[in-house]
Amino acid sequence: MSNFVYLYDCKHARQRNARRVSFTKDLYGFLYSWKTKTGIKQKRKPGLLDECIGAEAVADSAIFVPGEYQGEFDSLFHSYQDILTVRIFEVLEEVL
């Protein structure tokens, strides 16, 4: 099965900050906390990169995706197409 590299850039990042933050949280996950009677609790919500084994951020705005997870990443990037420009490259061979 093929592997892919997704290169993305956020258009109008300052104008649509909430959508950009939402995309980042969906992709990378986030840590949230809340107060309880016993103190502050924390929990991490995993992002798509955490859920897809072998997928990894290889540079700023570049994601390596194993072919078996291409559908999930296509869906995520499609849902944010209003703020992102995306280019997808198929990896044919790893040189090093």
What does this structure look like?
With 96 residues, the chain is an alpha+beta fold. It has one domain (3-91). The chain contains three helices and six strands, in the order βαββαββαβ. The strands form two sheets. The protein has a four-stranded antiparallel sheet, covered by helices on one side. A two-stranded antiparallel ribbon has the order 2-3. A hairpin with a 2-residue loop joins strand 4 (56-59) and strand 5 (62-66). The chain starts with a strand and ends in a 5-residue tail after the last strand. The mean pLDDT is 92.
Describe this protein with a few key phrases.
single chain, 96 residues, alpha+beta, four-stranded antiparallel sheet
In short:
The protein is an alpha+beta fold and 96 residues long. It has one domain. It contains 3 helices and 6 strands, in the order βαββαββαβ.
Silhouette: globular
Parts with pLDDT < 50 across at least 5 consecutive residues: none
Total helix count? 3
Order of helices and strands: EHEEHEEHE
Number of extended strands: 6
Query: Biggest sheet: strands, sense, closure?
Result: 4 strands, antiparallel
Strands side by side in the biggest sheet: 4-5-1-6
- Determine the oligomeric state from the structure: single chain
Question: Distance between termini?
Answer: 19 Å
Please state roughly what percent of the residues sit in beta strands, choosing from under 5%, 5-15%, 15-25%, 25-35%, 35-45% or over 45%. Answer: 35-45%
Mean pLDDT over the full residue set: 92
Helix coverage percent: 25-40%
Tally of individual domains: 1
Structural class: alpha+beta
Using only C-alpha atoms, the radius of gyration works out to 16 Å
